Target: HD-GYP domain-containing protein
Amino acid sequence: MEAVPARARVCAAAAALLAALCALPALTGPTNWGALGLLAALYALCDQVVRRRFGGTFYPVLLAGAFLLTPAAAALVPLPAALLSPVEHAPALPRRVWRAARPALAVWAAAQTHHALDGSAAVARSVFPYALLPAGAAVVAFCLVLTLLDGAMHAAADRVPPRRAWRGLFTRSLAPVAVHGLAGLMTAVLWRSPYGPVAALLVLLPMGVSCWVFAQYHRERAAHQATIRALVQAVDIKDGYTRGHSERVGRASVMIARQLGLDDERVEVLRFAGILHDVGKLGVPTRLLRKDGPLTSEERRIIELHPEYGHEMTRGISFLGEARAAILHHHERLDGSGYPYGLTGTQIPECARVVAVADAFDAMTSNRSYSRARPVEVAVAELERCAGAQFDPRMVGALAAALRRHGWRPEVTADEPAPGMPPRQRTHGRTTGAHR
Model:
């Protein structure tokens, strides 16, 4: 059972009271109960299906209600869905109250805005493109109210500072709600046409298919993230002295990729490559990773097999794409003195050249039990000194430019040993003059 803080209960109760006041005129004045009932039932059905199958929200029917009904009547459309949908966590009452009040207030504001701009007449006469203006304003009002309510609940329930509670909520919601609003407008126009509500419902079919495709994409992406997290956690447990290193290398790789102007898909691949570049350490004996003192030549040769181990371990993970090449080749050097294959120049894949720079940069700027962090400026100067022999000068320049623009804020450090691992001096790191 998850307790609901008192401040969150007050927030939900205040929203419910305000929603009741907004909906009250529908109970005392003329209301098209047939349209209201059909839209409320349809929204409840769509809400059940979308929540169970896709894990999201479905606003076209709700916004169609804003375009078709009076504001007070539109505020009643979400009520059956809130009463019928299951509540996963107790206590159920405040959560159900919030689930009803939140969309009720948002759709009431959307309907008020739409009516104020004479959108109902434009919908009834199918006047385009003029019907788009009040509909667009209604979508903005809908998003603003959702943002206000969600931020208030975030601050009340999670005790988030007000300056952070609302950050990014409006911009993240506007685009998807705008798409739902367009579908809602099409539904309303067909509803008012001679073809009636049955034809209007056909608009929801392609929207449902789109939601399904979108949900599948997000589920696949979530599975990818879970796979990567599991692998990184395994590496961090095995070699606790460099925990957090993988995430930081992924972040630096993204900075380089964005500075180079690569497309979003390749940026994401390079993020994966940076995060997983050392996953092959799982195949290296733990005693070598944690050994005190220098390695023998045979032990060093075993550790230098970790790129090949990582490449083999990720062979079956199809979404990694060229990230696997970065895992295999991130220790190659432009002058051919790297490993595992001694590639030179452009023989080394571009993604591996990116990760090599990101890896070296984080190694120099992180506190370790065997070395102190260098200032960012010193690390960049060392990278520039080694550019052309060890590192690709273009990648080094891109990182330097990105750091000048955005700075570097390491969120995870490895200056303390993992639980159960005593501090020690380790001297068998990778040495290049820039990179241990």
